[in-house]
Design goal:
alpha+beta, RNA-binding, four-stranded antiparallel β-sheet, SLIRP protein, RBD_domain_sf, 88 residues, Alpha-Beta Plaits, 2 helices
Length: 88
């Protein structure tokens, strides 16, 4: 993962999610593809890939919300992550 990758607990105790930040997402990758890729590590609650309203392109970063800290740990156990041939 990129050096900017972080994990943190969010939300209320009854609705706890765990976020990771992913940088360098290729322009050609959709939020659906990002979610599908990271689903192999656990239950993805949400994938937020912000778009620039002026250009219409996404900003090449995203947040992925997992349902447990174990899911986040599964992501970090893999040395690198490749989407469309690019390391994220």
């Amino acid at each position: 993962m990129a050096a900017t990758t972080t994990a943190r607990a969010l939300g209320r105790r009854s609705r706890r999610f765990f976020d990771i930040f992913v940088a360098e997402v290729p322009w050609t990758v959709s939020s659906k593809e990002v979610k599908e890729y990271f689903s192999q590590f656990g239950s993805v609650q949400r994938c937020q890939l912000p778009f620039d309203k002026d250009t219409g392109f996404h900003r090449r970063y995203c947040w992925i919300k997992f349902s447990s800290p174990e899911d986040v740990q599964n992501v970090f156990q893999k040395d690198s992550h490749i989407l469309e041939g690019a390391k994220v």
